[in-house]
Amino acid sequence: LNTSRPLFKDQTVRQAVSYAIDRTALLKLSGLNSGKPNDQVLPPGLPGYKPITIYPDRPNIAKAKQLLGGRTGKVVLYTGNDPTSLAQAEVLRQNLKSIGLELVPKSFTFAVLITKTGIKGEPFDINSIAWFADYPDPYDFINILLSGKTIAKENNVNTAYFDDPETEY
C-alpha cells in the first residue's frame, strides 16, 4: 500500500483494507502448495518471525467498514499482466468493492511494473508483487522494503514509500 498517496496516508484506511483482503483466495490462485497466508512483513522461517495473526486470512468486512468510516474512493492497483496477477486483481477488486472502494487495476509486464512502481510520485495506491528472501536475514525485508532513508526519485524497492523516522533501524 503506497503510503505517499492521499487515501493510504491514513493508517486507519490501510488497516481497513488489510481487514478486507481475502489472503486465502489470493494464495489459492498461486497454485497448489504455494504457501500459507501471512499478514506480516517477515515470512515464516526468517529470524524474528513470530506466528501471530494480525489480520484474518478471510475478510472481516464489518471491521473493515468500521475502520473506513464511510470513506469511499478509487484505488489504483499496479499489477503484472500474467494470468495469476490478473485473477488476484479481480479478487482484490471484489474485496475492496465490499467496503466501498473502487479498484482500478492497471497491468504491466514485470519489467515495466518494477520500473513504474520504483518512480517516486507514480500514481498507484497498491503494488501487487512478491518479494522473496535472497538470504535468511530480516534486513532483506524490513530495511530494504521499508526504510525511508533509501527513497529516491526512481529505482525504489520501498514501493510503499513508507517513511517514518520512528521505525528506522
Strand content: 5-15%
| Rg, alpha carbons | 16 Å
What is the ordering of alpha helices and beta strands? HHHEHEHEH
Write down the overall mean pLDDT: 94
| Poorly predicted regions | none
Based on the structure, what is the oligomeric state of the protein chains?
Answer: single chain
Please tell me what the overall shape is: globular
Helix amount, in percent?
A: 25-40%
N/C terminus separation: 21 Å
Instruction: Profile the largest sheet.
Output: 3 strands, parallel
Annotate the secondary structure layout:
Elements: H1 11-20, H2 23-28, H3 61-68, E1 73-80, H4 83-97, E2 101-108, H5 110-117, E3 126-127, H6 142-146
Parallel strand pairs: 1-2, 1-3
Helix pairs in contact: 1-3
Sum this structure up briefly:
The protein has helices at 11-20, 23-28, 61-68, 83-97, 110-117, 142-146; strands spanning 73-80, 101-108, 126-127. It has 169 residues and is an alpha/beta fold.
Task: Based on the model shown, name its key terms.
169 residues; alpha/beta; three-stranded parallel beta sheet; 3 strands
